[in-house]
What we know:
Layout: H1 2-11, H2 13-23, H3 29-39, H4 44-56, H5 59-76, H6 81-99, H7 102-111, H8 119-128, H9 133-161
Amino acid sequence: MELTLQWLTETMAGEFTLTMLVSMIPVVELRGGIPFGVAAGLPVWAAFLAAVLGNLIPVPFIIVYIRRIFQWMRRRIPRLNRLVDALERKAHLKGQKVNKYKYLGLMLFVAIPLPGTGAWTGSLAAAFLDMPLRKALPSVILGVLIAGMAVSILSYGVVSLF
């Protein structure tokens, strides 16, 4: 394992870091990060690891602070009220799907690798459903891992064709 980590840090550190950063972007997330990492030359396992880590970094901050950030934005930057309203509507709409099954629903919602789902939207829904971080975070982590495995299998399968 040490040899593998040494190789990674010496030869692919930039690609690994860039894959993490791509996976932190709200719309792209892990679903775009893994194919990006594989296309950049990372092994599938390294792209998976980088994308999962990058996708999970914002999650606790979203769950804990997003409502305060929205309040601050409304007070300080009124021009962004329409954007905040749209994000809150999206969170409430997605939250209705999640609310029925609570934490299992949150995990499944995050795990489905489709547009409009994922860690960012799931965390936003968890925040607006007042789910505590200690209960919502494991659901989001499991959902990200499941989505990451699905996307990795698809990415690896597509890459192996060539």
